[in-house]
Specification:
single chain, 9 strands, six-stranded parallel β-sheet, alpha/beta, Deoxyhypusine Synthase
Amino acid sequence: MKIREFMQRNYKHFNAAVCVDASEGWIKLLEEGGKMMVTLAGAMSTAELGISLAEMIRNDKVHAISCTGANLEEDIFNLVAHNHYERVPHYRSLTKEDEMALLKKGMNRVTDTCIPEDHAIRAMEHEMLELWQEADREGKSYFPYEFMYKLLKSGKLEGKYQIDPKDSWLLAAMEKNLPIITPGWEDSTLANIFVSHVISKDLSRYSIVKSGTEQMGLMIDWYKKTAPGHPIGFFQIGGGIAGDFPICVVPLIRQDLQEDYPLWSYFCQISDSTTSFGSYSGAVPNEKITWGKISIETPSYIIESDASIVAPLVFNYVLDR
């Protein structure tokens, strides 16, 4: 039985039913010639969401991505260092002494998974520093994702892959030349490393990596180029800046630039955040109407569940696997 058939048969109510509704809405958007932006908060790359997300990208179900700097880099960390990762299924019962032991082993814990400092982070530091220094010498600046694409296209990592490259969403995005917005890139491991090299004079300027405001400019360019003739959807995994930053492109264009472009034509969020005072991550979709992001007619869904469980189901439903 296909996943789509299984979900249609079993997912009849509550959050389960919304999974089906949101998936059907995604399919309808694409059938109408629409494009979809997916946003990734949390540590979805370390959760190996690439196994299903890469297929979505290859099959033209996803057309742009917004993600945290952590998700951008951690897909490559997993690509080249997967064999050195360590899973800690009993993470809930770890003592402070257990955590210190992991630190001494060079294992950086993300919930139940530890990223190896040497084989992932420090290995990537060497590769990225060469790219940053090359751009510095040439007086050029690039977006964070463009540096990642340069590294993947160089072929330097091909002999080091430790997972099936088909399971890397970043490789799939590079092959499709998808734009990737990384708001708050500064809050990532490689960004911290980048700053350290500017301070230590290995790099001469911070502007080697383009700023967040320049990324908003990129987002505007993509939206204005795509919107004519293509309704654009927004599928948000988690909350925070990965979602809040790109969704604001619509009121920016309409209210600040005073240009007539359509609102988002589909909205769905997978959220584990409860509705509370002032919380964007926990805000119901209707709040976005007041900010000029979606309309009364925009199909809107919120799935209150664990994204590591729900997102692969939705993706495979859309793929009709």
